[in-house]
RNA sequence: GGCGUGGUAGCUCAGCUGGUCAGAGCGCAGGAUUCAUAAUCCUGAGGUCGGGAGUUCAAGCCUCCCCCACGCUACCA
């Protein structure tokens, strides 16, 4: 890596309508922090920015639901997230927010640049729901209605939370405005679309080969396979990239800076990534620097740390925006992580499954060095290339076995021995020990891993350094030699080397577990963080110079980690156990109540509108290219019907021929996968989503009513 | 169904462009040791590298087919 480079590192902007959980931390914030701390330590010019993403309908919805203003929502979560990151040691140079005037300006300028340049946008007018009472167009989320798929009566305009279907507002049956409660009407409205499709060509070359304008921009082999794979699958998707709307009819957001666009704001996905730019600008203003050095020119190394849900925006949409704008550098890497699960299940706020960052800090308040305990465990299982799972038992194991027994114990035994044998002073030796050269090799490997975004491997090498120290110490066993001769040269040499290794660990731990790094610095008698700069220490090692001079006085012994499984003190184990108990309680509660609430009361007349009949399945076959659909021929006694049913995941076609069924016979026909379905088979569904036939007894006649 | 990513010792996982790649950690079983937080160190375990076929002098690593898990996507009238 080149020291002339200007590194600009970003972590995904958290959406300011909620707290973040451990999965977010492991996915986008910890890896970025490791990378940035390492770059700083090796003398690179780096700026690390982030901030709150504070626009979009989800925030206004939440505000409305809680009866507060959107401003109160974003203020609350901006402060919470910012504070929590700081407490966890995530070392942003600037944590901005997209509600700041500077960001408005930046985003509007960006929009205007593309607008004036021409060729990047197109205008489209479409029919969208409008609330006449409130005189405004309704965002998807502001419309509820009955889901056309599952019949859920409170589906949103963009998706049904019951069956998970992605919807568009016009699909909803009986749509209702959540503002007025009235039925919205369709009205034409104009929006601006970013012509993503015209960028597909160079994007492919850039992602596949790392080429940009014919020049090598980055090494595509350093990009994660799943990142490249997902991008290419988007470029390959049927019809290719499509123009994307970048404006919305909403009153919460950044106004579109055109006279003809009153009442319209920039769509949140357009405005949010520009937040990286405005965050850098604010940092530059506060520090008397030039933000453009980090965004423009050949020396810029832009790296986006995100979760895999954001790959498309950061690898396709935002790069296309930057390229279209013209002045900006494109990311050299987007090391997206996969997802972290929690004790075998997805994090779920509604179920209470998982733990949020600030909850952890609260629950582990009395746990010494709890920040690093968490950072270590999360790095250890970081979902770099596949989904991974956080388990409290692993957390305990990593903390006790690796941090306390391996690292903490090594540091402690060296500090104790040095104090005991040499009055706390680094002993003198004749020559640079070969052991330190071996450690230097490990450190070199560690650096390479970090620079390749392999943080788990780097962490393993950190532990290897400590293990090397333990093994070496054990081999020499200076305590035995010392008993025979306190002046034995091997004793001096051994402890000299070990103290130097501890000093190196003070530097090596800094990117991963910075709170511990500070403690180790104190143990080796360093008062200034600058003493433990890895870059300087590596320069010294390269010249066969050790970090600490003979005669240097180190500190008094002090434990770095208090084990969780401690015979004398159960308090830390109790904290972990209470977390496990909490999860157990959720599982229990789940078993108890798995029943959805009863729908609103209807009249008998409503029921009599349904024509439900008995029937028999005569034929069944799978519909090609559909996972769930079976095409059934059903005998209703008086006629035969073709019915498409989404039961293929649970029933083999041959297994259900002859089966008695109950059919909703007067349902309007609808075509599915090219087959017209003339009715619906009634099925019972349990809490796992499994289906079972509801049917009259075998032998019952077909075509008779169910009432 | 389409696309993507994975399926390696009991568990968690490393294995880059094919030839010490059959490995590490944990667990387990022996042994050594006492400076240290019941810590440390040494030794052992013999897993058809999801299944099958193929390419090659040589294949976890390349090709094809199949199975399984996860994600995205279409579809449960």
Q: Can you tell me about this structure?
A:
It is a single chain. The chain is an alpha+beta fold and 707 residues long. Helices cover 41% and strands 17% of the residues. It contains 20 helices and 27 strands. A hairpin with a 4-residue loop joins strand 20 and strand 21. Helix 15 (489-508) packs antiparallel against helix 16. The radius of gyration is 31 Å and the shape is globular. The structure holds one RNA strand of 77 nucleotides.
Number of extended strands: 27
Main β-sheet, spatial strand arrangement: 3-2-1-15-16
Average pLDDT, rounded to a whole number, is: 88
| Amino- and carboxy-terminal Cα gap | 76 Å
The unreliable regions are: none
Could you say which structural class the secondary elements and strand pairing correspond to?
alpha+beta
Radius of gyration: 31 Å
Give the % helix. 40-55%
Task: Throw out a few tags for this protein.
RNA-binding; globular; five-stranded parallel beta sheet; alpha+beta; five-stranded antiparallel beta sheet
Sequence-ordered SSE layout with sheet pairings:
Elements: E1 6-11, H1 22-41, E2 45-52, H2 57-66, H3 70-87, E3 94-97, H4 101-117, E4 121-131, E5 136-137, E6 143-146, E7 155-156, E8 173-177, E9 185-194, H5 200-209, E10 211-212, E11 215-216, H6 225-236, E12 244-245, E13 247-249, E14 264-266, H7 268-287, E15 300-305, H8 311-325, E16 331-333, E17 340-342, H9 357-363, H10 370-380, E18 388-390, H11 392-422, H12 434-451, H13 455-476, H14 478-484, H15 489-508, H16 514-523, H17 534-542, H18 571-592, H19 604-608, E19 612-622, E20 630-635, E21 640-645, H20 653-656, E22 660-664, E23 670-672, E24 675-677, E25 680-681, E26 683-685, E27 691-693
Parallel strand pairs: 1-2, 1-15, 2-3, 15-16, 17-18
Antiparallel strand pairs: 4-5, 4-9, 6-7, 6-8, 9-12, 10-11, 13-14, 19-20, 19-22, 20-21, 22-25, 23-24, 26-27
The structure holds one RNA strand of 77 nucleotides.
